[in-house]
């Protein structure tokens, strides 16, 4: 299924012949107000490094401050309109899911060639009709929102990179709608109290918001149902608000799950209490496949100080705040509620750069231009591909997140059984041998030997117990100390030395004494030297 | 009466040795542990001196020994600690051989019947362990110093040769135990010669990176040699001390083997790395490595919040630990989180990296073990890999066909960006290519580790001074 081999399954083959390169097309986004673009001049260069030819629709990057000439300077070809771009491109990279194109009065879906591949945000769960229409076109579609959240796929994870930007922007929007400074200062003209910011939902966006608010100088508190994020919150210098409640909300893929009613009641009480105190609330709480949970009621909004700001980053999924108007900035009884749904697009230049990099990594994982293929055996690519050659392949077969654990824990027992079955002899051989030796010693050895053996065996076990406690960082000093104490062999030498200097025993003993002393002196001194270096 | 006093002194010394090792469990109590060891040694020495004779000779030997030992201990560089430990191991081995010979020359007249045989067995075994420890350690020193090639040197049919040697030694046991006159002494001498070459052949066949196991093992042997001397001399203090040292070395060898996911037998049989290279080539890697410059690395570090440094033997070879420590101090002063991740088999000796970093004044509480830091790597912005290779190889985890499959490794590839300081793209000791170098988030910083680390350090400090200057100007 590589492009070099157009066989009976050629639909995935974007190029007609093996010699022609694979062309990547970057159309201008059509969604109203969308300023991002799927490739910047910088990422276009990286795409070319992967072997792709890059076509850019004219004015595609203008919203993100990338001019046509910048793209041309990066080696891209500028195409005058959308239809010719979609026609020429084997792979189309977009940000927003296909929309109705008002300029040419055609839906973008109809521009998709049967042999080509579209990569963009799709949201297949929310847009089943779009998915069906795309499938009819017969092409292949990869949804950037379907990239699985596993560590290997982090570099492809556009949701995270966009959420990061969004979280940052949310703080900026809040700051610009807030009548005071974020940072506290005492000046000649009087005292400026620091702003108090509460972040609800500490995912990527929440963390970015905490970081941004903190670096503007605000006092930041954060809440999340997942207790695992507590450390991350604290590492950013924010306070983690805790309910004293035994329930952890960690769900699948790093998202939160729905909590019990008792928990929610406690949580709401906390928010109600905090709402009276804080100046800024930023909510980012989402539960996958469900409308955003309602966390800030109208009553809480009204209890806030006039001039306070709420940024509802979940506005697109219905909002975490009862009075949010998606896409709008409204003022409700003196409190500004920001329900903007295009936060990343408001930082178009940076967002495009990150999204473009996500796409470069994806195309690189797809084999670059030379080995471009959709490898459905790859877990990441399988999950991301929502339509393969006109076949809807979404949702992907469920790979349960905890699944590797049971399989991993069931594998070792299986592995253990094999050797047991293979060599029962070797398993009983050692105990038998050992038993034999013990019996032989018991039968023939003299009593004095047995006494020494007792001491030896007990001391070995004692040593085994004591040494396991030694911190690995001290293993080298441990070796030099054992070097030193094994110099105890001098006792042997000392006892063998007699007054007669010519007797061979004395000579041997003296040499042994010398060697042992080198060990004792050298070992202890070098240990001391090393240990003196260890400090906190 | 006097004898009882000596015995109780020995008991006290044994207890002090045990407390000494127990003290080493934590850096805080380690110095006291070392001190207790010294006290124990002094107690044992004084007690023995009270019942021995020939003081002038003793004094001469001891004076000379203390001088040599003190000189060596104060002069040795921390990078050379593996050699020092190996050398001290060899001394115990040789001393055990000498004690064994001396003991044979003056058997206690009191022994009769089975006791004589047992006594001779003890001597035979003691001398065998002692001489193997001695020659094996000498070869280890030579390898670490580079006097002989550090790669595995394999004789043709070496398994046949070593088995033959062991057979010959066993055969020589019979005349030694039973014959009279000078025959037993000849047999003992012949056995010593064969066992000496046995030690050489065995250690020659073990490659450089397995030296950590070999040194631990020889450390264990040196303990067993002491214990064997204790059996021949009827001395429980020697037995206890030998057993303690023996188990210490055994545990360290075990930890090292586990760190490489290899069985003990596999390491001792040697030859690793020579045979594996074929398989390594088969899994040849595609893709290109991205190389980087000092400026880029400095930028990365300047923008990072958390940095983890993973040192390997390369850092010791390049003597880069002081510059690395200086960078650490500088970054920490800027409020960044800087920590070290130490793989159990990094370096040529257990704990080697820890000692080097301690020498360079790195606080030990930011030097973490692999297991402590592996989970944090995903949340780390920048990982600096300084002269490590196999210990950061992802194929140990991802590629079941890899020769190092299953070996626990530092999962540095999880971090935001990995900067690898290395001379070239060549494969590591295990002969396995490292896919890490070709990852998208890996930057290769080629060249001598010390030069490069110093370069980073220089730019970091100028960046700092310019920033300070700008601040004061404003």
The outline of chain A comes out as elongated
For the biggest β-sheet of chain A, the strand order reads: 3-2-1-4-7-8-18-19
Note poorly predicted spans of chain B: 273-284
For the record, the count of structural domains of chain A works out to: 3
Fraction of residues in helix of chain A: 40-55%
Give the % helix of chain B: 55-70%
Total count of strands of chain B = 7
Major β-sheet annotation of chain B: 7 strands, parallel
Count of runs of 4 or more consecutive helical residues of chain A: 17
Order of helices and strands of chain B: HHHHHHHHHHHEHEHHEHEHEHEEH
Give the full name of the CATH homologous superfamily of the largest domain in chain A.
NAD(P)-binding Rossmann-like Domain
The largest β sheet of chain A comes out as: 8 strands, mixed
Task: Itemize the secondary structure elements and their pairings.
The complex is a heterodimer of chains A (536) and B (474).
Chain A: E1 23-26, H1 41-49, E2 53-57, H2 68-73, E3 77-79, H3 82-88, E4 91-93, E5 100-101, E6 106-107, E7 117-120, H4 128-137, E8 140-143, H5 158-176, E9 185-187, E10 190-192, E11 196-200, H6 204-215, E12 219-223, H7 230-235, E13 239-240, H8 261-277, E14 280-283, H9 298-303, E15 309-312, E16 329-332, E17 335-338, H10 348-365, H11 379-384, E18 385-388, E19 391-392, H12 404-422, H13 424-444, H14 447-468, H15 475-485, H16 490-496, H17 504-533
Parallel strand pairs in A: 1-2, 1-4, 2-3, 4-7, 7-8, 11-12, 11-14, 12-13, 14-15, 15-17
Antiparallel strand pairs in A: 5-6, 8-18, 9-10, 16-17, 18-19
Chain B: H1 2-23, H2 27-51, H3 55-75, H4 81-105, H5 114-145, H6 158-178, H7 183-204, H8 211-233, H9 236-259, H10 264-269, H11 277-282, E1 290-291, H12 294-303, E2 306-311, H13 313-318, H14 321-333, E3 337-342, H15 352-359, E4 367-369, H16 370-373, E5 382-386, H17 395-398, E6 417-422, E7 442-446, H18 449-473
Parallel strand pairs in B: 1-7, 2-3, 2-5, 3-4, 5-6, 6-7
Helix pairs in contact in B: 1-2, 1-9, 4-5, 4-8, 5-6, 5-7, 5-8, 6-7, 8-9, 12-18, 14-18
